[in-house]
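Can't paste images in this forum, so I'm doing it all in text. The chain is below; anyone willing to post the predicted structure tokens underneath?
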Amino acid sequence: MTSIIHSITVDTRDSYEIASWWSKVLGLPLHPDDNPGDPESLIEMPNGIRYLFINVPEGKDLKNRLHLDLQPTDATRDEEVERLVGIGATVFDDQRRPDGTGWVTLRDPEGNEFCVERSAAERAATS
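Text version of the structure:
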């Protein structure tokens, strides 16, 4: 027997607000049934995996044990980092190297870490 990943779930203080932010990041809509004040909000990704945000009473205190690695599809890594900071992300750990390799770890508006890697075109240009 095996399992598949059905949902990636994020604990949050305001599911609708943070799901709306991630909707901008991913360029995907919130589920049509989601509304402000709902205890959970959902983004359905094209690959079938669901990105689910659920309200919890406690705040985030420690580093994530699991995080997303994003790869821009139509921009460079640096352009995507600039875009995400412009909509509310903060830089947490900048691992960009002088040769153009590396990644940037950001935090979303609720402090959840995620990374932005180089685009496929950037990787191909340096291989």
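The mean pLDDT is 94. The helical segments are 15-26, 77-86, 120-125.
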